[in-house]
Amino acid sequence: MTDIREHKQSAVQGSKFSLTGSTMALTDELVSLSLRPAIDVGPEPHRKPLSEAEVEMLANRLLDESTGAPLWIFAYGSLIWKPDFDAVESQHGAARGWHRSFCLQMTRWRGTRAQPGLMMALDRGGRCNGVVFRLADDDRLGQIRRLIRREVGTIEDAATVRWIPVATPHGLVRALVFWAGPKGERVSRKLPLETVAQVLARACGHMGSCAEYLYLTVKHLEERGIRDRNLWRLQKLVAAELVAIHGLNPAAGSH
C-alpha cells in the first residue's frame, strides 16, 4: 500500500491543479490518487441477491410492459460511458421531474463497509439531461436480463426500475430507467454538496473509487454537450478535497 501511495505521489510531484476555470478541475491525475486496492467481501448479509427465477420474472414483466414499441433506455450516469446493451440509436433526452442525486449509500463496488461511498440515482424534482438509447429488437429479453443483472441487486432494488417520459429532439419517448426514486435505510436525501464531496473523495471499492465515477460521468456528459450544474460544482469540490488530502499545490488559474 505504501508503494502505491509513493508511486502516485511521484506521478504528481510538483504539479499544480486548477480549481477554477471552464475545464474540469477533477483530472486523471487527481482521480488516480483516489484509487486503492480493495477486496470484495460480497453482498451485505441482510440484502438477499436476486435469484435467477426473480431475474427472469422481472425481465419478462419489463418485456411485457414494453408493449412491442421501440425500447428506449434513459442513461444519466454510468450507462452513458459503460453501456451493457446493444444500442442502434442514441439521442439527447430530458427527464422532467427528476434530477441526479448522490443519495444512495453503498458499501460495495465503489465503497466499503469501513468507508461507505455514495451512488448516484434519480430523485424527484427538477430536470435531468441525459441520453436515451434505443435497443436493438433482436434478443430484447436477453438485453433486459443483462441490464437487470448489472443494475438490480435485490428485490427491493427492483422497485427503482420504472418507465418515464423523456423529451428528445424528435418528441417524447417512453424510456426505461434504473435507480429512480430509491427508498429505504440506505437513502440520504438533500445532502450538502460539500458533504457529498468529502465522501466521494475518500470512498473506494473493488470496482474503483467514487471520484472516478464522478469524473467519468462529468467527462462523458461534457463530451456530449451536457452540463449538469450540480455535478460540475461537485467535481470542483472533489478536486479540492483530493488536493487537500494529498497536500498538493492548487493553482489559482486555469490549466
From TrEMBL:
What organism, scientifically named, is this protein from? Rhizobium ruizarguesonis
Q: Which Pfam families match?
A: ChaC
EC number(s): the record gives: 4.3.2.7
* SUPFAM superfamilies hit by this protein: Gamma-glutamyl cyclotransferase-like (SSF110857)
Superkingdom classification of source: Bacteria
Would you tell me the protein name for this molecule? glutathione-specific gamma-glutamylcyclotransferase
The record's InterPro entries line, in alphabetical order, gives: ChaC, GGCT-like, GGCT-like_sf
Record key words, sorted: Lyase
First-level EC class: lyase
